[in-house]
Amino acid sequence: RRAFPTSGGLALLLHSIVVPRNLVTAFGPFIASRPHGGLTRGRQIFRANPGKQWDPVSGMLRKTLAGLAGVVKDVSVDVGSLAEPPGMTTWEELAAQLADAQTEGERGFRAGLAAGTIEANSAKCNLRLFDAPEGEEPRITFYRDSASWCPYCHKVWLCLEEKCVPYRVERVNMSCYGEKPPEFRRLQPSGQIPVAIIDGQVYGQSNDIIDAIERLFSGPQHPPLIPDDPLKSSRVNGLLRLERQFFSAWLQWLCGGGGPGASRRRFELEAVLGEVEAQLELGGGPYFLGDDFSLVDAMFAPFLERAAASLCYFKGFVFRSSGADSEARAKWPRVNAWFDAMETRPSYRATKSDYYTHAHDLPPQLGGCPSEAAGRPFAEAIDGDKLRGAWDLAGPFRDAEALTGEPAWGWVDDLAARREACEQLLFNSKAVARFAARGAGKPGIPGVMAALADPNAVPAETVVPAVDACLRLVAQHLLVDATRDPAASEAASEAALQALQAQLGEVAASLEPGPRVKVADCLHYLRDRVGVPRDMSLPAAQHFRARLNWAADALLA
Question: CA end-to-end span of the chain, whole Å?
């Protein structure tokens, strides 16, 4: 169950119903997976058998064998006729309500995205112009992964943004969730990403791309990533070696099994993390070379971020915390101050992922991440199914760090997050409803290595109207009092929510128990496939996931 679409699913479905198959496999790695079981079994392996690796090949075999029963062209689930409650809001009416609630900048987001002129970066950008003269084409085409998972793409992405270098984006599947198109293979026979074409020259390694960006783009518009100060620049190579040491210690513990070796691997990780702490202190902070962001920060960021998420989820090891009195902050104050500083930077905010996304994108990339007992409470809270803290309207929501170990994204306004989630849903709502219907559908063939990915899955078309109705209620719930209008009373908001609850109850009552469960499966399917930052920010994802739970819970009541 736990995975999300990449070049498709919520992301591309929100951009276009038609996806060129020669560019990316139709609807990304985590788009259509076996609707039941599957990764649940994988997660049980992580948790119940700490020494056992997740086996992506056996998962592929199960899906292939299931598909060999026959190529599925249609899936029929008998839902009867949906009696839509009177007064249900249409998508067009919802779009008008959203536009009334949005700020001017939010209303201009899609136009700015297409023109490459939005002020703040977004994972959805395919064009970034910065202050380039009108009509001037970017000199760089940046090939990065469709899902925003790849750490090597991440560091190049950060450097482009920090140096304000105009670029175009071409999205390519990672090998664990799809095939790479022939035209990309001609550029990069190995298939590895990232790749960049700069002034006609192809660069096929992340460090080579960054080196070329630093050499070829200079001057006031493109601030240097390596400082002119000889004392600071002399530390760069040693710090980059430390980054590789941290990377190695992290992966050895993350991918290693349990037993006596786990204690040794944890000790080695803590030792390297202690050296990172010492080097940050030596530099004066908050960044590695002092007050200014540098190449070193760009190189460390993808791996410190992924380590914080994955070690919490799989091992129960927390070294990133927002709590002033927390144990993690007391032990690694400079590391946490570095995270704090990074999270003030627009370049990092736009490219940062959440713990849920990393916990489920790393195993297919690495071949498995065995879980230790200390990680299970965090994993259950992060996943939001057994402990709903981060995905429940009645839960702590914005203060879920005690359960999940993940600091809140305090820079995203709560109401803006709700409008963001609603906009993403409304932008291509009909396609999203059909995508969600794969939760009641059938898997396709061939499979890919990412857990339960199935780009050829077939939706259950007959459930689409009921799913569509539920999604309209979810969108309307996101918009209740979404402008914080001083004239709007709390009583009026409560009445609106009660009316939505009543309409949802009528939708549920119009369905027989079996189909009702299938529609709830579809809502859970969509919920589990929201990726950060590809689809939306973490606060927006929390709001969206929580309201999908609200709707599914009503169907299952």
Answer: 21
Handedness of CA 545, 550, 555, 557 (dihedral sign): positive
Say which range, 18-27, 228-237, 246-255, 288-297, has the weakest mean pLDDT.
18-27
Q: What is the pTM of this model?
A: 0.86
* For helices 464-479 and 91-101, angle between their N-to-C axes, nearest 10 degrees: 20
How far apart (Å, rounded) are the C-alpha atoms in residues 371 and 255?
9
Which two three-digit tokens encode residue 495?
A: 């009445």
**What CA–CA distance (Å, rounded) separates 457 from 338?**
43
Query: Nearest-CA neighbor of 79 among 506, 523, 464?
Result: 464
- Distant-in-sequence, close-in-space partners of 393: CB < 8 Å, separation ≥ 6: 546, 547, 549, 550
Whether the Cβ atoms of residue 99 and residue 107 lie closer than 8 Å to each other: yes
Q: In what order do the strands lie in the sheet with 140-145?
A: 127-128, 167-172, 140-145, 195-198, 201-203
Strand partners, 214: none
Q: Is the dihedral of CA 144, 148, 149, 155 positive or negative?
A: positive
- CA distances in angstroms from 439 to 2, 432, 528, listed in the order given: 12, 12, 10
Segment 527-531 shows an average pLDDT of 91
Read off the pLDDT band of 438 (50, 70, 90): very high
The pair of structure tokens assigned to 94 is 């919802």
DSSP 458: B
Contact, 147 vs 531, CB < 8 A? yes
Contact by Cβ (8 Å): 162, 292: no
Q: How far apart are CA 89 and CA 95, in angstroms?
A: 10
Beta carbons of 370 and 53 less than 8 angstroms apart: yes
Neighbours of 522 (CB within 10 A): 32
Distance CA 329, CA 392 (A): 28
pLDDT digits (tens, 9 = 90+) for 365-408: 999 999 999 999 999 999 986 666 678 887 656 568 888 999 99
**pLDDT tens digits, one per residue of 479-493:** 998 776 666 667 778
pLDDT of residue 80: 57
Judging by beta carbons within 10 Å of its beta carbon (0-12, 13-18, 19+), is residue 238 exposed, middle or buried? Answer: exposed
Helical H runs in 69-202? 91-101, 104-107, 109-115, 151-163, 182-187
Q: How many residues does the chain have?
A: 557
* Tokens coding 526: 């969509």
Q: Check if the beta carbon of residue 432 is closer than 8 Å to that of residue 471.
A: yes
User: How distant, in Å, are the alpha carbons of 155, 297, 337, 354 from that of 287?
Assistant: 16, 7, 8, 22
| Residue 255 confidence (pLDDT) | 96
